[in-house]
Design a protein that fits this description.
The complex is a heterooctamer, with 2 copies of chain A, 2 copies of chain B, 2 copies of chain C and 2 copies of chain D.
Chain A lengths: L25 E6 L8 H5 L5 E3 L5 E3 L10 H5 L5 E5 L12 E2 L3 E2 L1
Antiparallel strand pairs in A: 1-4, 1-6, 2-3, 5-6
Chain B lengths: L1 H12 L3 E9 L4 H15 L3 E7 L8 E9 L11 E6 L2 H7 L3 E10 L12 E3 L1 H9 L5 H13 L4 H11 L5 H21 L10
Parallel strand pairs in B: 1-4, 4-5, 5-6
Antiparallel strand pairs in B: 1-3, 2-3
Helix pairs in contact in B: 2-5, 2-6, 4-5, 4-7, 5-7, 6-7
Chain D lengths: L1 E6 H12 L1 E6 L6 H10 L6 E4 L3 H13 L3 E6 L1 H6 L1 H10 L3 E9 L5 E5 L4 H6 L8 E3 L4 H18 L2 E7 H5 L1 E6 L43 E3 L13 H16 L2 H4 L2 E4 L6 E6 H13 L5 E6 L1 E3 L3 H7 L5 E6 L5 H9 L4 E5 L8 H9 L3
Parallel strand pairs in D: 2-3, 2-4, 4-5, 5-8, 7-8, 12-13, 12-15, 15-16
Antiparallel strand pairs in D: 1-9, 5-6, 7-14, 11-13
Helix pairs in contact in D: 1-2, 1-7, 3-5, 11-14
Classes of the chains: A mainly beta, B alpha/beta, C alpha/beta, D alpha/beta.
The complex binds thiamine diphosphate (2 copies), iron/sulfur cluster (6 copies) and magnesium ion (2 copies).
One iron/sulfur cluster binds next to helix 1 of chain A.
Chain lengths: 105, 204, 278, 372, 278, 372, 105, 204
């Protein structure tokens, strides 16, 4: 990238936070050391699960909304997202919780 | 020692040779920064300058460095032999290039990115942080670094540097980049007032 | 289907080679994901799969995958693959190429390999430019667009990759995009299962060179364009030509039974060995 | 005169334009691509044509076609592309079609290290195409020389009706330097000799006093034949030994008899030098630095700007009193082979490096000062 | 129209180069006749016409013709011609190639030159074999036929030359045979007059290599086969597919207006010189 | 043992089959075509595969692909095709893929004279591809040697994991001679070393005692990476100088340290020879005739069957007492350049001819007997 | 050509010699030094004007039948035939008449 | 002189070297004839033989010649230096190759095609005519020539020649070609009876 280039992460329409908690739910993990901060997951997650973190990396801000649709998993060019199906009604984890220091959620 | 070098070299060209290396990761703008520095010195300060660069595979990615040799005489070897000035914007760069800094050369590191400094005789400046503060854009860190270099070493004049920046950054981003450079200049001033850990070149 | 974690563990050379060299947001990694899921879905043994690539950003893919992998020369991946396939007909061979790789310098091998209908699965990652060398125009750059070597706009017609493969004789031809990655994965699966030459055009983008030069925005913007500017074959057939202008038509264009090359050659061997006409 | 801060590649492109180049066909490849990009932008401004072809083979073919049509024409590439151009380099020699082929050398073999410099294609420039043939190859050491030697390359190519190879390297190609470019009127520009006879009397491959027959452009009324086969003076295929030998002799003689005109070297302190350094391309800059480092040792430097035909006489002269000849190269020793032939194997000390890094002045100095 | 005597005198290098090197009865000479009559019919000045060829029996044609003539390398004639055309847009350039020349080694230049739609008239003399080197199989050899390198029969599909040119973007595409030489001449005339890339497939035969190996008889026999096994497009459209099997379909396949390359480039020059966007 | 009257090209094909070659990809070109034609007929009989590719570039690519799949593989061509193969020769060197490339030399440059013999591609075999690299090239003098040296070419190629070039010429290629072919059991056949470690421990480019790491076939469970980029011992791209230098050093060492094993020469009357003739290929036959013509002159002959790596020691030994070294070649002097480097320019007398005719024994005799 | 190859000049159906003398008439000349004796003209001339000569070259045997249709002119691969329109009712020349020793009629 | 040569050569290999050149136009079958002669001598007569050939551009057309060297010893130089036997089937061949016939070498010309003979010391035989007479096919002239060679020079045995012909001509044309060879043999007998203008080799 050259100096002055604009990094245009376009925001999608606001997430439908009012929807009921999804039946099929996902546990979302972002591997920060592979993630390059392209913003695809942030922009396209249909449930707006991610938010842009301070260093340009996505943060799993609303895991509770995740339907485990796998859009982010299939489209992350860097294999930096894992979404696991949540069994039963295990609660969603808190935003930004760190796993092992290198993984950001 | 800078003086010494100058004397030794002057037997050849009458005027010294000053070697600068700017190192970082691809995308940090080090190559453009080198070009700006060199062009400022060569086109607007009337000195000679040669700029070279290395990058990763093909045109993108990986480590990237830019070198500028400045002299009032002819420049033969276009690369750094023993750097008078080394600016490192990444940990890798700092680890890798420190070894051929002159014993009394100047090392500037971007403390936003470099955690472990190879030496204590270093000017550690949170360059990227300053850039974000000044312009909101990480990418302008390279301009902050140029401002720092200008302010600390005087190997390039402020006016020349600004001209070069304006002519080389993408149209429409001139002000942004100049602002970043000025942030660097100010930080340099602050540092000089505070006193530096290594000697700076007194003349060129 | 295996979980993503397992896929990463199983198919990626994850310990050594990551993060990959591609620019943040580049679609090539997305195609790579589709490939490993396709291979996994079909239940192939890794010891049965080879990946051959040419030179370019897309050509860097094999290094990341735990198959037999070969990063060859610019444009010639299909010819290397032809030799390997003839030596090892039992291998599933995936050939990954960029648009320049496959159709500029490699155009001849592309049409001939299709003509021979040899059992390879060729994936052309079409980003309409030479990404690796910094954004020159390629044989798929649309007319009027800018490129570093077309500073006044490109004046060449672009190749219709799928039609070309079809006319030359490929057994399976399909197109999808990195946005429609599950569809893409499906085509890759069908291509892998097809006995014969399968060509899958994976429409991607290069935001750092072509995208920047043409002010098409970030990876996110270009990804969105793929979503918005593409239609299925079915829809396309109903659209008037004006509306189809500039649209990416997705779908399967060819799926036919054509005698496959290594099988035909096997018959020659049988004939020769039973003393048939030489 | 124009002061600028330019890349070697850009200077090469501007040199081409100054020399009258009006056609460029190429295929992108690191580290040569900026030459093509500059030409793509600049050529139409002067009414010239840039085209990006489907590969390097087609690129040189188009260049030769354009040259036959009367335009000064050039292509630029790097190792892999240069390998692909070999067949057509031979065609250009055979058909005596002027053109300039720039090879910005990167580390090989094969894909090697695309962004790392090298001087590994020197012998390839001489011997890369099949069959016997003479060739001209030049190698610049600075941005300014990228400009100058491109002009020279065009001049030699037009003067001798032959392809000329400009062997740059990724260092000089990507290096930026302050240069003062000459004004057009300061440059000597040579154009191919045109026939001054009526078309019926024209023989495109005639024996002439200069050994270089005038060349008519397609389109100018001289309807002649061009072929890659052995041909007679009219350009028609021949199997007659006398005609083949006449062609072969002339084609070598036109270069060999003019080595003095073609061979450009720069000699520094070579008189009475006990140690002679012979260098070219970016390595010559390290060598210059090195000889100044060890002045007191009676060290001379001969910089070769022309690599082929090999500047035999200049080397012999410079090495006259030398006890040792140091040849630093960013390869495993290529020009060193030629030097060994001339001055004897025992005198030559190679400084070689083929890992993509420049040879340093210190390495050369060590070879100069080394005690056997 | 000029008499044959005059044509010979005007267009052939009759004093030096005849008799030609082709085998007795070879169709290449017949194509050559059609070309000179076409040029004559259109009233072109010889100083306006260039002929470029590759290597092969057909590649030997230029030596006999009193135009600007260039016998280049195997497969690359179109690329040489592209350079010449860009340097000399005013020239009428005829490119003569064999099927191997144009479509085996030269296949890439073929598709790209068609894609660029540059104003050249390309004639592929299709004898379904490599005549010059003695009868190896070519990309147009029909399946099952014998060749010196296909002693057990050819197993490759053949290229549909005209369809290929069409898909790539040629402005004019037609096919005829050396038997139907007046028709062929007409197509060549139309091709020459067309502003853009014109491809004419001239179906011929090689009785001394391919013909002999496949026991197809003499030049006379093979000439008769051209007569008997070919139909016009009009007729073909009415025939059931089975009956079309093995038939040569003659006619014009494409005749369309596509912006021509040298003209588009001229606009770039104008734009650049008037200080347009670089 | 089998007595036959064969063409050199046929003998080459039979040699390949005897050596275990099971894959041939090629593109026809005079005068090599009969090799392809023979392979097309014979390969399927032994379960092998013949394919005619769309050009020479694809041919060598397919050969390399097949070799990676575990088949011994070969292609054959002549000058123009050999020029086109240069890029992939470099790839084979870089990726250390065994294969045999036959170049039946015809008169060049360019299309030249397709049916006339030549020895014009000798230097091209050494230097034709870009970047620094070692190479092995052999050159047969008879039909029997076409067979034998093809077997040797495969053996060396498998042993050293390297492309081997067989430089034939149109004379030996098209000549028919009575030959007695060895029975299969009389032949020593070498196959590439296979890894004897589990796949997880396998490093395809490891440093080994022999400098030649074992090679696993694709398909055999060793999933490794091959690239034309500079790579580490695992085959993955690297930019580390230590790894690049390790590779470079090994790749040269594996050939250079085994010149004794690779260099095949035939010495006739060389002890105490005052005049030494050094010849190869078909010219060696003229040379043999010539030295028997002038026996009384203390004339020796060294026939080079290996051209690259150059048999330096053998040449130095044979030329030890020679006052004059005569080097006849069907080119303008290529091997003569190497000889000059070794024995000094003043001693060497070239007999050169590049018009498509064989050098006659009389011409060589004249050079032997010439009084300066 | 290899020894033993069969030269298969196939004869066409017998010429329609009974037709009336054509209105449009041609004077046919074969240049023997260019003709290679391929037999195309002999086999395909719709009026069977040619006959195969003793040395394998065509001989203009029945010029009177020629309609100047130019088939032979357009198809002779060696430019060895010239057919000139005969004006008025100039008689056809005799078979085999030699012109300048090198041209056979 | 043949004897002389034999003696000179015998110092080397003990046995002589006999050089044959068959020259004509492409399509006259000279290359096949050379191959047949060589193969007959080598495979069936137990001697050594080397056969080489030259033709026009690429695989077809133009002049064509075939050379056969016969010896009981090793054959080094594979080409004719001074022909012991020259057979010319065309005027061009005769004009071109006569010059390196040995002074007492044997020249056979096909008088059907060669009008001007370069010398009077020549065996002129209407070879093509004989062929047409014997088989109706011009193309069998090459076999007539072989028969002539066999009959006149005895460098190859009749049996060997016939075997070689049968094994090398296209399937189905064996009889035809052998017939032509026999016509040549008969003509040779006739000529020998009539007495020849030049000495023939007495031994080999
Ligand atoms: C023979 C040769 N020519 C040129 C190149 C330079 N080169 C490397 S990648 C590339 C084009 C890449 O474009 P594409 O194939 O579309 O791949 P992308 O990078 O867009 O994925 C080129 C021209 C080369 N490596 N080798
Ligand atoms: C690079 C290269 N490869 C191969 C050849 C050999 N060659 C000459 S002509 C030819 C093929 C001829 O076939 P085609 O183009 O169909 O022409 P035809 O002779 O049938 O008219 C080949 C393979 C060559 N001259 N150059
Ligand atoms: S898509 Fe992947 S790489 Fe991109 S921001 Fe999301 S996690 Fe990071
Ligand atoms: S799986 Fe779907 S819903 Fe969940 S985070 Fe990913 S894209 Fe959003
Ligand atoms: S340059 Fe373009 S194609 Fe290459 S990695 Fe970056 S975005 Fe992807
Ligand atoms: S070999 Fe075939 S194509 Fe060539 S001239 Fe003879 S008949 Fe024509
Ligand atoms: S067509 Fe022409 S070449 Fe053939 S026989 Fe008739 S005149 Fe002769
Ligand atoms: S012009 Fe027609 S009718 Fe007359 S000879 Fe020729 S083919 Fe026969
Ligand atoms: Mg691309
Ligand atoms: Mg053909």
């Amino acid at each position: 990238m050259q100096a002055g280039e604009e990094s245009q992460v376009v925001e999608e329409a606001p997430p439908e936070t009012t929807k009921p908690r999804p039946k099929r739910r996902g546990r979302v993990t972002v591997f920060d050391n592979w993630c390059k901060g392209c913003g695809l997951c942030v922009a396209f997650c249909p449930r707006k699960v991610f938010e842009l973190g301070p260093e340009g990396h996505p943060v799993v801000a609303h895991e509770e909304r995740c339907t485990a649709c796998n859009w982010c998993v299939y489209h992350c060019p860097d294999f930096a997202i894992v979404v696991e199906l949540v069994e039963g009604d295990e609660p969603a984890r808190k935003t930004g919780q760190s796993v092992g220091g290198r993984v950001r959620r | 020692m800078k003086k010494e070098t100058a004397k030794k070299e002057s037997t050849r060209t009458g005027i010294g040779r000053y070697e600068v290396r700017l190192a970082g990761k691809g995308g940090q703008g080090m190559i453009l920064a080198g070009r700006i520095l060199a062009e400022a010195v060569a086109l607007y300060d009337g000195r000679n300058a040669v700029q070279t660069q290395d990058y990763g595979p093909e045109a993108r990615g990986g480590a990237s460095k830019s070198e500028v040799i400045i002299s009032d005489g002819e420049i033969y070897y276009p690369k750094v032999m023993n750097a008078d000035l080394l600016v490192c914007m990444s940990q890798e760069a700092s680890d890798r290039y420190y070894y051929d800094l002159k014993r009394d050369g100047l090392l500037i590191i971007d403390s936003t990115n470099v955690e472990r400094s190879p030496t204590t005789r270093v000017v550690a400046v949170p360059i990227t942080e300053l850039a974000v503060k000044a312009t909101g854009r990480e990418i302008t860190a390279a301009m902050v670094a140029l401002g720092l270099i200008c302010g600390l070493t005087k190997i390039v004049s402020e006016e020349a540097l600004e001209k070069a920046i304006r002519s080389l950054v993408p149209k429409g981003t001139e002000e942004l980049n100049v602002k970043a450079m000025q942030a660097g200049l100010e930080e340099a001033k602050r540092l000089l007032e505070a006193g530096l850990p290594v000697a700076l070149p007194q003349e060129l | 289907m295996a979980t993503q974690r397992q896929l990463i563990y199983d198919y990626l050379r994850h310990k050594k080679k990551f993060p990959n060299i591609w620019c943040a947001g580049c679609g090539i990694g997305i195609v790579m994901g589709a490939i490993i899921r396709a291979v996994d879905e079909l239940g192939y043994d890794k010891n049965q799969v080879a990946m051959i690539s040419g030179i370019g950003c897309s050509g860097r893919m094999p290094v990341y995958l735990d198959f037999y992998t070969m990063h060859t020369t610019h444009g010639r991946a299909l010819s290397f693959a032809t030799g390997l396939k003839l030596a090892r007909p039992e291998l599933k061979i995936i050939v990954v190429m960029g648009d320049g790789d496959a159709l500029a310098i490699g155009g001849n091998h592309f049409i001939h390999t299709a003509r021979r209908n040899i059992d390879l699965t060729a994936i052309v990652i079409n980003n309409a430019t030479y990404g690796m060398t910094g954004g020159q125009y390629s044989p798929t750059t649309p007319q009027h667009m800018l490129a570093t070597t077309a500073p006044y706009g490109n004046i060449e017609q672009d190749f219709p990759i799928c039609e070309l493969a079809q006319v030359c004789g490929a057994a399976f031809v399909a197109r999808s995009t990195v946005y429609h990655v599950e569809e893409l994965q499906g085509y890759i699966e069908q291509g892998l299962e097809k006995k014969g030459f399968a060509l899958i055009e994976a429409v991607s983008y290069c935001h750092t060179t072509y995208g920047r030069l043409n002010r098409l925005g970030s990876a996110v913007d270009m990804m969105r364009a793929l979503k918005e500017n593409s239609v299925t074959r079915q829809t396309a057939e109903k659209l008037p030509p004006e509306e189809l202008q500039g649209k990416i038509v997705r779908g399967i264009f060819v799926d036919r039974e054509v005698p496959e090359y290594t099988q035909l050659y096997q018959k020659i061997i049988e004939r020769a060995q039973s003393g048939g006409k030489a | 005169m124009r002061t600028a801060f330019l890349q070697g590649n850009e200077a090469c492109a501007y040199g081409a334009l100054a020399a009258g180049c009006r056609f460029f066909a190429g295929y992108p490849i690191t580290p040569s691509t900026t030459i093509a990009e500059t030409m793509a932008r600049e050529l139409p401004k002067v009414g010239g044509v840039f085209i990006q072809m489907e590969d390097e083979i087609a690129s040189l073919a188009a260049v030769l076609g354009a040259s036959v049509g009367g335009l000064k024409a050039m292509t630029a590439t790097s190792g892999p592309g240069f390998s692909l151009m070999q067949e057509h380099i031979g065609y250009a020699v055979m058909a005596e079609i002027p053109c300039v082929i720039v090879d910005v050398q990167r580390l090989g073999p094969s894909t090697g290290q695309p962004t790392s410099p090298s001087q590994g294609d020197v012998m390839q420039a001489r011997w890369g195409t099949h069959g016997d043939h003479p060739i001209i190859a030049l190698s610049p050491t600075s941005v300014r020389e990228c400009f100058d030697l491109t002009v020279t390359a065009f001049n030699l190519s037009e003067k001798y009706r032959t392809p000329v190879i400009l062997l740059m390297d990724a260092v000089v190609g990507h290096m930026r330097e302050k240069v003062i470019l000459p004004a057009p009127e300061e440059l000597e520009i040579i154009d191919r000799a045109r026939p001054n006879v009526p078309p019926e009397w024209y023989f495109p491959y005639e024996e002439t006093a200069s050994d270089v027959p005038p060349m008519a452009n397609f389109g100018d009324g001289f309807r002649y034949h061009i072929t890659g086969l052995m041909h007679d003076r009219a350009g028609f295929p021949t199997q007659r030994l006398d005609e083949i030998n006449a062609w072969l002799t002339r084609i070598f003689r036109k270069i060999d008899a003019h080595v003095d005109d073609i061979a450009i070297t720069e000699a520094i302190n070579v008189e009475h030098a006990r140690t002679l350094v012979i260098a070219y391309g970016c390595t010559a800059r390290a060598a210059k630095e090195a000889i100044y480092m060890c002045r007191r040792h009676r060290v001379g430097l001969l910089v070769l700007k022309t690599l082929w035909p090999f500047p035999k006489d200049q080397v012999l002269l410079a090495a006259h009193e030398a006890q040792r000849v140091v040849v630093p190269e960013m390869n495993m020793g290529q020009i060193a082979l030629e030097v060994e032939r001339l001055v004897g194997r025992s005198k030559v000390r190679r400084v070689r490096r083929a890992d993509g890094e420049m040879i340093t002045p210190q390495e050369i100095r060590a070879a100069i000062e080394y005690k056997e």
